[in-house]
Write a structure and sequence with these properties.
The chain is of the alpha+beta class and 227 residues long. The chain has eleven helices and six strands. It has a six-stranded antiparallel β-sheet with strand order 1-6-2-3-4-5.
Length: 227
Amino acid sequence: MFNEFKNKYLGKSVDIDGSYGSQCVDLFNAWNRDYNGVYISCSPDIFAKGLAEYKNRNGILNYFKETAVNNMITGTVVIYGKCKFAPVGHVCFFIKDNGDGTYQALQQNYNNKQYVTVDNNPYDGIIGAFIPNQLVKNSVNIEEIAKAVIRGEYGNGDERKQKLGNLYSEVQAKVNEILGNTSNSVNIDELAKAVIRGDYGNGEERKQKLGNLYSEVQAKVNEMLGV
């Protein structure tokens, strides 16, 4: 779900309230418009920090679950107070930790760029972190589902999409990540069988989907087919 949201708005200018151009709060409320059907105001503040400072009265807790900064997941809304990074406050979405004291963020109006970008932000200055309820409800073990997909338990094509529902994009991304990063957590025989069934396409498509497993899996395919 979050990946779909990111892909929809990345590089675009989003102005939900029609005031002051495309601000960071507009991207936050693009999520609310698309998935919650509401607009959440910073009021009585005029800056994004009010989303956290007035959380008990602005309705954010009806649609988001507050969490600790060290417990953020992809899609978590991150709110800054007044700080060196954000002099008047800021709101963005957490993507992933970078392991160097920063994290990757989806945001708008960073460095006065009034369009949506992906940048590296510091943790210093964060005053609130809120996970969208949609992501909390779907907080299943994506990695285990991805491994089951690789084993063939969710079928292919439309059957897989139907079985996974709104988890499809996230699970498929994890499948691609697993196949691209490690051969220890997957069964090469099962992958080869999936290739033979046509699950991984041909040529460059197959190479892209299998990543650094391509040579090993292709060798197993050739072995099974007697090539």
